[in-house]
Each structure stands twice: as structure tokens, then as C-alpha cells.
Amino acid sequence: MGYAITKKYIRHGNARPGHKLTGPIFGVAHDTGNPGSTAHGNRNYFNSQQPSASAHTFIDDKYILEIIPLDEKAYHVIYNVTTDNRRYGDDANDAAIGVELCYGGNINFDEAYARYVWYFAYLCDRYGWDPDEDITGHSKLDPERKTDPENALNQNGVSFQQFINDVKRELDGEGIASSTDDELLQKGDNGSKVEQLQEDLMAAGEELPRFGADGDYGSETVEAVKAFQARHNLTVDGIAGPNTMKKLKEVIKDMTQQKPNESHKEAWEWAQEKGLLNGKDPRKPITREQMSTVMMRLYKKLK
Ligand SMILES: [Zn+2]
User: Fold this and answer.
1) Confidence at 1, pLDDT banded by 50, 70, 90
2) How far is the CA of 57 from the centre of ligand 1 (A)?
3) Of these four, 60, 197, 205, 284, which has the most CB atoms within 10 Å of its CB?
4) Alpha carbon of 78 to ligand 1 centroid (Å)
5) Cα(184) to centroid of ligand 1, in Å?
């Protein structure tokens, strides 16, 4: 099976200077070393703090989150080590993709691990890597200082070799290419995609009373997204990810269907019978001027 890859790049800075990567010719498996920290939590940290270290992709039990484009350098293995130069003829920072496994805390290891394995298989497929040769671990390159990703894997009964074997099995299976690139919107984003989201939210009956569809994903939009998620039994996090976007489209599609909702059917038919409404667009919002017309028709009838 395939997973969605969410591309949500951090801004330029120390963690993402934007230098072009060579290749990529190999991949380095890491774990975050910070139990319970999520993919988005890590992204927020790198985006705001801009440390002189980074990795391309963070994976937890819900997201495969690319925070640095795969054709740009990330800084995940110290330049001093020489194992990367000996094995691959280049520094990991200059020629490798760095992938971090999020683990511990509330993160479901099996779900996160399945995505981690799948993502490495995806990279092997995309770049023509051999899992045995072209995937290494941070600890293999920098054994004196680093214990990842074995640290997280071993805690959950998985050896590094088992991990490589799982990648090979995934690669031999079907559907590596079936990944879809879903984009995700969240607080702080702006632009036409946010504006469309806001229009969709309002069309789905949520309220943006102060700012409307202004193209800025601020607190008001977060609250509207949360309200929508709660109403439709989705995870309430205020982030418009693949599930929320999908549900929003479904709800709007449903609303624009030319049938009144069951609970309003009697009143709808009555209003047509009395000539108050023209019988079109049962689930579209009404403007104040249209409302005035309806009220005036009713008033004249009552007189
Ligand atoms: Zn590492």
C-alpha cells in the first residue's frame, strides 16, 4: 500500500539554506532522540528556531512530513566523520537524504515504523538505491557519538538489519509508486489555497465572522477548522490535512445536491406551496436581501 507524503517546507535559514544536494546518492536513517515529539512538532521547531542542523523528512504515526525539498541539503551528519566519504565518496550532508523516525510518548510505533519503512522503499524506488548498500544509519556513520536509529528501533524489538529487510520486502511488493502528494494547510499559511479553504469552510456552514476568506490562516480559521472537524468526527487539531480536505469536499458536494435535508423537507415544501420560495437551491445560503423578499411575501400574505 502507499502513504501520502506531506510536503510542508520550512522557511529559509540556518536549517535550510537552500543549497543544492548532489544526487541524492544514499539515505541516512535517524530517530529524533526525543521521545514523543511528533513530525509537526519537529517541523515547528526547525522552522522557528532554525538550528544549524536539520533533516529532510520526519515520520510519525500519522504523517510523512518533508520539511526540506529532497533536492536541497539538510544537515544531519556532522562533517567531521569520514565514514560517509569512504563509503559513498561524499559527505552525507551534501549527498544524502536524512529521514527521522518519531517515536515514544503517544506515537504508535507500528504505524510510524510502517511509514518509515515504506518511505525508504519509496526513496529506493525513486532514486534507484539498493537498500543493502544505499541506506545507512546515523550510528553507522558516526558510531562514537550516535545510537540512532537503533535506539528507537531496538526499544521496539527491531534490529537495523530487520529494518533493511522490511524495506526490501516493501520494495518487492506492489504499490510503491502509488503515493500521492497531499498538501496540508495550517496556521501561519497564506495565499490562494488558504482562501479557497476558507470559502469551502463557509460553504460547509462554518463561520469566519471577522476576517472571512482573507487568505490568512489565523486563529479564526483554526477555530473554524476545529469546529468542522468536531462536527464531522475527525481529529480536532485545526490543521487542514488530507482527511479534513476530503471531508470538506464531500460535505460541499452533498450540500449542493438539489435535495432538501430530511429534517427541513416539510417546511421546504410548505414554503414552495405558499409561494415564499421558488423551489431552487434548497441547500444554498440566503442573502439578507433575499431574506427580506421572503419576509415581505409572507407579510403580504398575512395582511
Ligand atoms: Zn541522527
Assistant:
1) low
2) 12
3) 60
4) 10
5) 26
Compute the distance between CA of residue 303 and CA of residue 296 in angstroms, rounded to an integer. 11
Q: How far is the CA of 13 from the centre of ligand 1 (A)?
A: 20
User: Could you give the C-alpha distances from 45 to 1, 58, 160, 202, 237, in angstroms and in order?
Assistant: 31, 12, 28, 32, 18
Domains of the chain: 5-182 (3.40.80.10), 192-256 (1.10.101.10), 262-302 (no CATH)
Distance 146 CA to ligand 1 centre (A): 7
The pLDDT of residue 76 is above 50: yes
List, for residues 89-115, the tens digit of each pLDDT value: 999 999 999 999 999 999 999 999 999
| Distance from residue 302's CA to the centre of ligand 1 (Å) | 76
Residue range 44-62: mean pLDDT, rounded: 95
pLDDT at position 83 is 95
